[in-house]
Amino acid sequence: MSWFERLRSSLGKARQTMAEVAALGREKRPITAEFWEELEDLLIVADFGVPTTQKIVSGLKTVAKQEAWSTTDQAVARFRKDVERFLTLPGAELNLTSSPAVVLVVGVNGAGKTTTIGKMAQSLRERGKRVLLVAADTFRAAASEQLAIWAQRTGSEIVRGAEGADPASVVFDGVRAGVSRGADVIFIDTAGRLHNKANLMAELKKMYRIIEREMGAPPAETLLVVDGTSGQNAISQAKLFNETAALTGIVITKLDSTAKGGVLVALVDELEVPIKFVGLGESADALRPFVPAEFIDALFEDERAPA
Ligand SMILES: Nc1nc2c(ncn2[C@@H]2O[C@H](COP(=O)(O)OP(=O)(O)O)[C@@H](O)[C@H]2O)c(=O)[nH]1
Ligand SMILES: [Mg+2]
Fold it and tell me: Which of 61, 74, 269, 305 sits at 20 to 30 Å (Cα–Cα) from 203?
């Protein structure tokens, strides 16, 4: 299966709902209050969330009035373009211009941080980059072991601390090692769970500051890894992380496991941070840059955008 086919089939649930939106358009009914309500309901079902749904629909209502639209097909055509516009933010490419480029990877336990780092390392190694992985998840011994396997598999270097070591000190060692060894990219793998949320955020802030101090600049990237199946929970989590460590990008994992696509739109809308990658599986090749137009095509099955 091609990447597009995989993306398309992973968005099966969301696509069904978008097919219902498309059907509202094909009916070419007069635009009524009932139509707007139907559209809103479908967006909630597809996990766009209340704030983003309201923003999209109220925007459509405004244009409908300004342009004196008469039938639902006009609204649906515009809806599809709006979703793409919502998803398109500048800076979607991974910023690796600094040398070394420090990439701090955060997110809750099980979101896919370690796996995503492994996949990114693989692709950078294929491009001949010197990559260093830093195992700052010292909460569980198995965590640094998992990263070590990825280091070996991808031919990356690794800096790890003992179980229970201060993660900030591992970051310190890792950044120093990366600079002195001439790494191109340093990935910092962090824990997604500590004894409580306040501890986790305090720890994260400390790591962020150490990178800033050692590099004389914030991390080149602070990526939030989000489990694509986590629905609206993802939004509040993401906001919390964003308050602690200014996020520069989002990675959505597990889109292959029955995801509802709307949450991607809600995340970008509410955080104003671009999605940089999507993951469609556990293997090293199952991560690709996020391309809004491709996502839209996968979401709106067989519904070609009007030229
Ligand atoms: N199906 C699927 N599983 C994934 C994806 N990314 C990660 N996983 C799996 O999710 C689980 C947790 O991943 P891990 O990287 O350990 O999460 P972490 O706790 O955030 O570091 C592992 O079993 C991964 O293989 C993905 O895109 N699709
Ligand atoms: Mg991990």
Answer: 269
